[in-house]
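Q: Got a minute? One more chain.
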Amino acid sequence: MSRARLTIPLAALVIAAVVAVFVATSGGATKTTASSSSAVSLGHTSVGAVLSDASGRTLYLFEGDRPNVSTLSAAGRAIWPPFTSKAKPAAQGGANAALIGTISGSGGAGQVTYDGHPLYYYVGDQDAGQTAGQGLNQFGARWYVLSAAGQAITSSATAASRSVGSTYGY
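A: Always. Here it is, folded:
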């Protein structure tokens, strides 16, 4: 393999390691998790109405996951922290309670799922309604916000609500 081909993957690995160290040493300031009183809701963004937590922080799905199984690496979780809860969160503001679930997580909290999609935050979103992670291709697959129906919204325009479909390829 040529030196140029090694440089890009090595740079990505170094960046992921730096972010992981920053998150670990900053007391988790960029890592967001939910408490047992959390809820899945719909937030208003430039992409349209998308799933969010009770504070309006946007939630994402990872196309590399399988139904009810998170496949994201530890390095990926440093940039895409799982949305967790010690109990099944309530639905509010247009979210469907029947689509909310949890899967095993670490530290006694389960990762929240919606229609089988494990849910994540993006560290680049600091405020309610931000969607900086929309459409990014990181850690082997794309990241998308979700509609109230639990489907990926794959466009970045406000007309995104018309773009739906299965993210698992079946």
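A: The longest strand covers residues 39-45.
Q: Perfect, thanks.
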